[in-house]
Design goal:
The chain has 281 residues and is α/β, with parallel strands linked by helices. Helix content is 33%, strand content 24%. The chain has a domain of 153 residues: Rossmann fold, CATH 3.40.50.300. A hairpin with a 2-residue loop joins strand 9 and strand 10.
Length: 281
């Protein structure tokens, strides 16, 4: 089933000035439900801008982002079919009902001054109506306890601790859990393991795979690690200068090696080379 369709998405920063930068140049992308797409490309290729357009951080200059959502279409605006909505017309806070995101910086996805269970409560109630009742009930606490237990970080026994006391890895694992607690239509991962040490990054990436596969969550993950781009997910897209210049899926993706990606990039990007960070990643 088609989950998301991006049609001729365009974004230019500072148009008509000496600092004009075409970030996304007419991107088309169809995403099936349950797809896990890894996105690679050099600096300035348009990877993060594409995620920002999907999440609503940046508005589209032109084009559409169509989402096949199971609920909430009636108040979203721009209903196109029984379930498809054009989320490209929605402000960022309204898209949060459909789209979850984990950033590179572990500090961005949580509120450090609040307790672990309070952060989870915010995530759990995303898109739900607010009522006058006790903040976190017994059944909710049990839900959070069981969810934290699977992280194997001991956080289930520290639910009343302030998030600012957690390490970067613990905080990023919590952010990932919060992003998937209420199954989003689309999960965006913006180099979410890049700021972590290798051991912690591997643990968070393993947790990512488990959570997304368990709930069949449609996922788009930016990475500078070419080995991770090959290893994880069922599709890989390569971007350069705001365009998708190569895509691999299925057996073709499984058979790829880093050397193959380097050759693909050089042949499709006019002889340009990828950064050392990507090659050594």
């Amino acid at each position: 089933m088609l989950m998301m369709q991006i049609k001729q998405a365009r974004k230019t920063f500072n148009p008509g000035t000496v600092n004009e930068k075409r970030a996304i140049a007419g991107v088309d992308l169809s995403v099936e439900e349950g797809d896990f797409i890894t996105v690679i490309g050099g600096n300035g290729a348009g990877k993060s801008t594409l995620l920002n357009l999907i999440s609503g951080t940046y508005p589209l200059d032109s084009g559409e982002i169509l989402l096949n959502s199971g609920g909430g279409a009636g108040d979203a605006g721009g209903v196109l079919a029984d379930r498809f909505i054009n989320i490209g017309r929605l402000p960022e806070h309204k898209r949060a009902r459909y789209v979850a995101r984990v950033f590179q910086d572990p500090m961005m996805g949580t509120c450090g001054g609040m307790e672990i269970q309070e952060n989870l409560a915010l995530a759990y109630r995303r898109g739900k109506p607010r009522t006058l009742r006790w903040a976190i009930g017994k059944s909710e606490k049990e839900l959070y306890h069981n969810a934290l237990k699977r992280l194997d970080l001991g956080l289930e026994s520290r639910m009343s601790a302030k998030v600012k006391l957690l390490s970067g890895g613990q905080r990023q694992a919590l952010t990932l859990l919060m992003a998937t607690l209420q199954r989003p239509d689309v999960l965006l991962l913006d180099e979410h393991t890049a700021a972590l040490d290798p051991k912690t990054a591997a643990r968070v990436q393993k947790l990512t795979t488990e959570l997304t596969e368990e709930s069949n969550i449609t996922t788009v993950m930016i990475t500078h690690n070419m080995r991770d781009a090959i290893k994880y997910g069922n599709r890989l897209i390569m971007m350069n200068e705001g365009n998708i210049i190569y895509e691999a899926r299925g057996q073709e993706k499984a058979a790829l090696k880093v050397e193959d990606l380097l050759r693909k990039f050089e042949s499709n990007a006019g002889g340009q080379t990828l950064s050392d960070r990507m090659i050594l990643g």
